[in-house]
Amino acid sequence: MDAAEYRKRGKEMVDYIADYLEKIEKRQVFPDVEPGYLRPLIPDCAPQDPESFEDIFKDIEKIIMPGVTHWHSPYFFAYFPAASSFPALLADMLCGGIGCVGFSWAASPACTELETVMLDWLGKMINLPEEFLAGKDGQGGGVIQGSASEATLMSLLAARTKTIRRVQSEKPELTEADIMGRLVAYASDQAHSSVERAALIGGVKIKDVSSDDTFSVCGSALKKVLEEDKASGLIPFFFCATLGTTPCCSFDKLLELGPICNKENIWMHIDAAYAGSAFICPEFRHLLNGVEFADSFNFNPHKWLLVNFDCSAMWVKKRSDLTGAFKLEPLYLQHHHQESGLVTDYRHWQIPLGRRFRSLKLWFVLRMYGVTGLQEHIRKHVRLSHQFEDLVLQDGRFEICAKVVLGLVCFRLKGSNELNEALLKNINEAKKIHLVPCHLREKFVLRFAICSRTVESTHVKFAWQHISELATDLLKTWQQNHHQQ
């Protein structure tokens, strides 16, 4: 394919994507395929000779689209928002076109410098304390990770290194292996599984901290487990606080937890993967109060801020805590500005060496929407979640299972877990809308997340009407079976 054909085919692809997104409402939100559907549709081996673009293009609808779950459909209410917008898609095209691998400043100065500035922009939008910003001569700063899972892992590994060095300076007789065997990390029993996975990769123990009736961790719960573990000779070193838990969007009590972590020399990382985008709205910023006690903080613009995956924003108070843990300088990566104090080499801030020019997506979106446009997007989703909550509350057969703060409603039929499992099965088999469940304590709960950029009140009303009708049919069958038994 030469440049002339690229121009032609590129325009065709832009039209196809625009049509796909404009007409996505007409597509069945969840695919009607079985595992292994794709293999019989394509050859066993790559083609020996080139094929035409036309043939490849035809196969998109024939082979790919039948197996796609349409995350951007206004009938997709599962998992979390997977934000996307036309400015972000255009920026991704430019990112792919430039094709730099920005592991160091010298590898592409614009790639590094735009990221530093965009993370400062974003930090100021959510009113992060000055310590987290790079500025012109700050000790902190931000970096774009691939996901919140990577941000949690990076913070845990940096905390591990920092703690080992501190303990060895206080007790030189202890080996690194001695200390590693006693390190323990903590997170809420509602925290995302990626926190446990980070501890698994990091080779350290991790313990749940019990959440309260609002599914939040408070200071007394953390203090209790810390006292028990210290008495047993363990070394607490890391706590992951969650703002907007995956099951129900609950918020750990930072103002209680932060001072404890600071006093005990425990690195506090804040995972606000989904909820963090809402902090650009002044009415939700109080949910971040206490961030001043944290060592690192993360949220995902690719969830709710109209920047397509992957774009996970992470900030640290002291960037030397990261670079000190991961810095290696082979000759082939060195450049004459690296020790000047004027540049950032982001390879020291992340697990992989290479990185894409992801800050272009932020730059395009923040400029083309502005803060006010993004605030309205968040507020619209929150309004729609409360609309759905009101519909649930008007039906005495259902109950709300957690406080609705942002764009997520946790609800269920009053009754057994088996009844609610059957309801969810019927909903997803009908394929008119798509939901996923969670467990809150011992209850099987349905999650209704406002996800799509294009979702409107009519879609929410349709979803509720559909759920209500399926519930009516299910309860009738359930009662008949119960009566016969």
UniProtKB/TrEMBL annotation:
Keyword Iron-sulfur listed: no
Transmembrane annotation, as ranges: none
This protein's GO CC annotations: cytoplasm
GO molecular function: aromatic-L-amino-acid decarboxylase activity; pyridoxal phosphate binding
EC number: 4.1.1.28
Family under the similarity heading: Belongs to the group II decarboxylase family.
Protein's UniProt name: Aromatic-L-amino-acid decarboxylase
Organism: Lophotis ruficrista
